[in-house]
C-alpha cells in the first residue's frame, strides 16, 4: 500500500487533528495510507527551539517514508502557499517522490492581484512594490507549477481520485 504524506497549512487550523483524521480516512478509502504531520509524537514540555527541531525531524522522517506527497497549495496568509509546505514539496521532489498539489480554483497568479494592486508597464505587470508579477498562466509560482507531477483544482479528495486514474 502506497503511503501519502499530507502536506499543507491545515496543521495550523483549530480543528487540525480532526482534519488529519479525516484526510487519513480518505486515504484509506482510496487504498492509501495517510501520513499526517500531526501524527508525530513531540514533547511540548521543552524549549521552543527543541520542539521546532523535533517537529522538523519527525516530518522529514514521514516524507522519507512516503511514496507520494499531496500538498495543499492554496494561498496561506497572503497570495502564496505556505512556505513550509513548499519546502516539503521540494524535499520530496528531490528524493524522487511523486508530488501532487491541489488548489481550490485555477485563476492565474496574476489574476490574484486586484487592479489597484498591479500596474502594467511596457507589457510587464508590477506590484505596488515595483516587483515583477509572474505571468506564465499558472496558479502558483512556476517553480512549483513545473515541478509537481500534477496540479489538481479541487480538494484533497479530488487529488486522491486523480491518483486512481
Description:
- The protein has 165 residues and is an alpha/beta fold.
- It has a single domain (3-107, 139-164), classed as Rossmann fold (3-Layer(aba) Sandwich).
- Helices cover 35% and strands 19% of the residues.
- The chain contains five helices and seven strands; from the N terminus they run E-H-E-H-E-H-E-E-E-H-E-H.
- Helix 3 (83-94) links the parallel strand 3 and strand 4 (98-103).
- The longest helix has 18 residues, at 48-65.
- The radius of gyration is 17 Å and the shape is globular.
Order of helix and strand elements from N to C terminus: EHEHEHEEEHEH
Fraction in beta strands: 15-25%
Mean residue pLDDT? 96
Low-confidence stretches: none
The proportion of residues forming helix, as a percent range, comes to: 25-40%
* Largest β-sheet summary: 5 strands, parallel
Radius of gyration: 17 Å
In CATH's first tier, which class applies?
Answer: Alpha Beta
Number of strands: 7
Determine the CATH topology: Rossmann fold
Q: Which structural class do you get from the secondary structure elements?
A: alpha/beta
Total separate domains:
1
Strand order of the largest sheet: 2-1-3-4-7
CATH architecture assignment name:
3-Layer(aba) Sandwich
Task: Estimate the global geometry from the Cα principal axes.
Answer: globular
Distance between the termini: 16 Å
- The total count of helices amounts to 5
Amino acid at each position: 500500500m502506497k503511503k501519502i504524506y499530507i502536506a499543507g497549512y491545515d496543521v495550523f487550523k483549530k480543528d487540525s487533528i480532526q482534519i488529519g483524521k479525516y484526510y487519513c480516512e480518505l486515504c484509506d478509502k482510496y487504498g492509501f495510507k495517510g501520513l499526517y504531520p500531526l501524527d508525530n509524537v513531540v514533547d511540548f514540555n521543552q524549549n521552543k527551539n527543541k520542539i521546532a527541531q523535533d517537529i522538523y525531524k519527525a516530518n522529514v522522517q514521514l516524507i522519507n517514508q512516503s511514496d507520494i506527497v499531496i500538498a495543499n497549495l492554496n494561498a496561506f496568509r497572503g497570495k502564496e502557499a505556505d512556505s513550509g509546505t513548499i519546502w516539503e514539496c521540494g524535499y520530496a521532489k528531490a528524493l524522487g517522490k511523486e508530488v501532487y498539489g491541489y488548489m481550490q480554483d485555477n485563476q492565474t497568479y496574476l489574476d490574484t492581484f486586484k487592479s489597484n494592486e498591479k500596474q502594467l508597464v511596457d507589457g510587464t505587470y508590477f506590484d505596488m512594490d515595483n516587483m515583477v508579477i509572474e505571468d506564465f498562466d499558472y496558479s502558483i509560482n512556476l517553480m512549483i507549477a513545473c515541478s509537481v507531477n500534477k496540479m489538481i483544482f479541487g480538494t484533497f479528495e479530488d487529488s486522491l481520485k486523480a491518483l486512481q486514474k
